[in-house]
Amino acid sequence: MTRVIRTLAAASAIAASIAAAHSIWNSRTLPTAIPPEQPREPGANVGRISLLLPARNEAENISSALTSAIRQSDVDEIIVLDDASTDHTADIATDLAAKDLRVQVHRGAADGLPLGWLGKAWACERLSHYATGDVLVFIDADVELNPGAVAAATAIMRDLDLDMVCPYPRQQTTTALTRLVQPLLQWSWLTFVPNHLSMRKQLPSMAVGNGQFLVVNADSYRRVGSHESVANEILEDVALARAFRVAGLRTAVVDGSAIAQCRMYTSDRALVDGYTKSLWSAFGSTPAAVTTMAVLTLVYVLPAVLAIVSRDQATRRWGALGYVAALGGRVAVARRTGQRVWPDSLAAPASVVSLVALTGLSLLRHRRGTITWKGRALPR
Question: pTM to 2 decimals?
Fold first, then answer.
């Protein structure tokens, strides 16, 4: 039994080391969106730009998000869709709209979603119909753009010859669970997606998306069927990126930590609800989700445990190597994406344990049909 455990520890440590090396390579080669020194001339390079902001029950966030949008001098129109909010989201947006002629506020119908649609996709689809831009910039209501953010995003889309780009915002974390879980968003794709190959080959299976800050060429967006093509997708951003690639169009996720920040969750309970909303669908099937969580546990949790509790010296050494490798990958990604490095990276095994627990809870809630989001029940 000692030999079996030692072998397992060695295999886990080697796997963690390879993954860490890949994280470091991806972090060093990841394209970065950087604000230009000068604002663009109207219509220069990319044409007319529409910034689109869907919001449902976002009274806490809408002011900072919309204010940051108004600061984007490169944007020609800003369109907010209040998706039947039951709080003061619409009132706050309307007050801000009165200060800038570029801003329009539209209200969604209160009689529910059309059959076959989920809320985020429906709101984005509605916004796209109001938009007149050659480039459409979608941002979530919990995103705050730095000055020049849209100019930086459109510039990197042009420079990399892309039809869709997602500048990944810096994730703001304020609670214990958000500090454990949120860094896994960037870490996961920087560790497991071969970014250079993905950029070169544009394979749909390697598509990554992030709807927090998503920029598309309007003609390309309509060519793939807009958000209507992903109407019932929980992870509509990834599905949209995949649809672009299936159509032969180019997409990429780039580092947007210098131009935007996102505070997805202000409490641990909100994080639990948010992750359980979507994790059940993130891996394609329940068996795939269980298998993925098992592999992550073997590679990132078992070594740390064995380094502490094993009585076999060789097993402890392998376990320590695995933990240090995992730590190295987390540190590299945290530094590259503007996350808190210490002491949060030290809790890498606990982060994976949290993700495993959230995935299990998501699968359970989905099976029971008890998942809700923003006051709406999601279909089983």
Answer: 0.93
Q: What percent of the chain has pLDDT over 90?
A: 88
DSSP 8-state class, residue 32: B
Residue 108's alpha-carbon distances to 82, 114, 123, 127, 374, in angstroms, are 6, 12, 8, 10, 14
Closest to 65 in 3D by CA, of 261, 273, 271: 261
48 burial class (0-12, 13-18, 19+ CB within 10 angstroms)? Answer: middle
Calpha distance 351→171 (Å, rounded): 15
At residue 321, φ and ψ (nearest 5 deg) are: -60, -45
Which of 290, 281, 292 has the alpha carbon at shortest distance from 379?
Answer: 281
| Confidence band of 116 (pLDDT split at 50, 70, 90) | confident
Rounded CA separation 150/133 (Å): 13
Distance CA 26, CA 28 (A): 5
The single residue listed with the structure tokens 């390579």 is 25
Question: Radius of gyration over alpha carbons of the chain, in Å?
Answer: 21
Nearest to 322 by CA among 89, 10, 2: 10
Is the distance from CB of 149 to CB of 137 less than 8 angstroms? no
Q: Which residues contact 171 (CB under 8 A, 6 or more apart)?
A: 182, 183, 185, 186, 261, 262, 263, 264, 337, 339
Continuous segment of H or E residues that includes residue 260: strand 260-262
HSE toward the beta carbon, residue 107, CA cutoff 13 A: 14
- 277-297: pLDDT as tens digits: 999 999 989 999 999 999 999
Q: What angle do CA 310, 311, 315 make, to 5 degrees?
A: 55
Closest CA to 123 of 211, 21, 242, 251: 211
Question: For residue 161, is it left (φ>0), alpha (ψ between -120 and 50) or beta?
Answer: left
The pLDDT value given to residue 43: 46
Query: 137 φ, ψ to 5°?
Result: -115, 110
